[in-house]
Amino acid sequence: MNGAKGLTNGALPATNGAVLSDDDLKRIATARERFAAGADTVHGVRSEILVSWYRCREEYEVDPGLERAPAAAEGSAHSMGHDVVFAELGGWAACAAGEVDGLDGLVTVADCEGRVLASWGSRRLLRLAADSNLAAWSIWAERTSGTNGMGTSLESQRPVLVRGPEHWCRSFDPWTCAGVAVRDVVTHEPLAVLNVSCWRTPQPGAVLPWLSRVAAATEAKLRQRARHTGTLLAAAFADARVPSATPLAAVDTAGKVVLANSAAAVLIGTPADTPAYAPAQRWTPQVPGVPELVRWVTERARQDPCWRGSTRVYVPFLGTPLPVAVRPVLTGTQVIGALLALGSADGSDVGGSDAGVPDTGAPDAATPPGRPGASLPCPRLPSRVVALREDRWVLLDPREIRFAETDHNNVWLTTDQGRLQAAARGLDRLEQDLVDKGFLRVHRRFLVNLGRVREIEPGFKGTLFLATDTRVHETVPVSRRHAPSVRQALGL
Predict the structure, then answer these.
(1) Are 349 and 401 within one domain?
(2) Is residue 8 part of a domain?
């Protein structure tokens, strides 16, 4: 982590609307000045703020003397899913004052890049906000404006509160800001952010719970839409005209498997002929290159909906790369996933109902621009896992980790060095980093290092328990949905 050592997260309360005393404000302001000057050891700063400061200093190099947020460059095109979220959050923002008692604040909706789309509030607050460029088409991402409610919530999996000198830029200290990101329920990437800002006054305690409710309600609607796209992917799978022996799988835009036939299921390590329409039910393929491949295919298909092609991916089950033909699946102009025909170098194998769409005809058509003739590389995953333990960053060899557990979007690692908080944001991200290191998702909350499993205990109605340390009876539950892949991986 660029030499960051001795970082101390102090002992202030967790994120809430508590008023900071004058002494607290002075202590945090002093810590910020020391940290901005290069110190790695500071006290009295919440861990989520300290981590944000670190990004601002080391990764984004934001000037703490910045007086106004910069104007946004020309905005990028948004998908229909984004537009639905913007409309939903705009409705919530417009009625925020009636939803949160005692609120005298500015309510702002920004896109996934931190560009402000619209603000609601009194004329007084709108005028004050304009002084900091907290207005439409300014950009409040961390990389441009430092630690703040909008930008930091885009980097976090939960609502974020930034009070006074917790901002990275001193000019924003008069504001107290709370933000929450609404995320794509398939890819978990942020779509938009809702933010509440108060001028020289603490935020009502009801703001953070309200933001959580808004995000949950909006994402619930997105899950309904995503379930529908799951049925469309399954329909595209059924409509694909391929030889019966061809390993075929339908995957969403995150690379999760919605449906696979028997031949594909053996190769990618998922159940066969078992549709998983809802995002939470979809299967993670045991082929590390699939998520990266599908992300690239999704971007390519957004530029050219008629595109299809092929490449090679490394299949651990075979221990060798395997050709794979790819066809994006669209509904209207929205890319919802892809069909993968493993063992096929001809994209026509997944023609389906739109088989008349021109094929690229090139065996390496899935090659990224600028690299003619090369296949998409399997990702080179990190050899170390970064964790945070009170006063320092800890670099872990994956073999030191017995299992990982998610708790309210924080990821905790049970390791040979004790229980540590992972720097990774979300268990899905950690799973992608460790999938080729012998780790397997065994439960929606648990990721296990199979090399550290010592005993297996049968549970109720097909569940299992994996013991990773028999000295203290340390066990991890395996859900019924994941039990078949665990049994297969362990040779049971």
Answers:
(1) no
(2) no
Q: Whole-angstrom Cα distance, residue 428 to residue 406?
A: 10
pLDDT band at 444 (very low <50, low <70, confident <90, very high): confident
Q: What CA–CA distance (Å, rounded) separates 76 from 108?
A: 19
Give whole-number Cα distances, 290 to 23, 35, 190, 352, in Å. Answer: 52, 40, 21, 21
Q: Which domain covers residue 260, as residue numbers?
A: 240-354
pLDDT above 50 (res 296): yes
CATH of the domain at 336: 3.30.450
Verify that 244 and 219 share a domain, yes or no.
no
Alpha-carbon distance of 160 to 155, in angstroms, equals 10
Is there a domain that residue 366 lies in?
no
Give the separation between CA 405 and CA 219, rounded to whole angstroms.
23
Q: How many CA atoms lie within 13 A of 171 on its CB side?
A: 16
Q: pLDDT tens-digit profile of 29-45? A: 999 999 999 987 888 89
State residue 345's pLDDT score.
56
- Whether residue 345 is found in the same domain as residue 454: no
* CATH code of residue 428: 2.40.50.1020
- Could you tell me if 153 and 118 lie in one domain? yes
- Mean pLDDT, residues 216-242: 94
Tell me what pLDDT residue 392 has: 72
Beta strand pairing status for 385-389 and 392-396? antiparallel
Contact 310, 366 (CB under 8 A): yes
Q: Is the pLDDT of residue 5 over 70?
A: no
Counted domains in the chain:
3
What band does 361 get if pLDDT is binned at 50, 70 and 90?
A: very low
In this prediction, residue 354 has a pLDDT band, given cuts at 50, 70 and 90, of very low
Tell me which DSSP letter residue 201 carries: S
Residues 6+ apart with CB under 8 A from 446: 403, 404, 405, 406, 476, 477
> Is the same domain home to 165 and 55?
yes
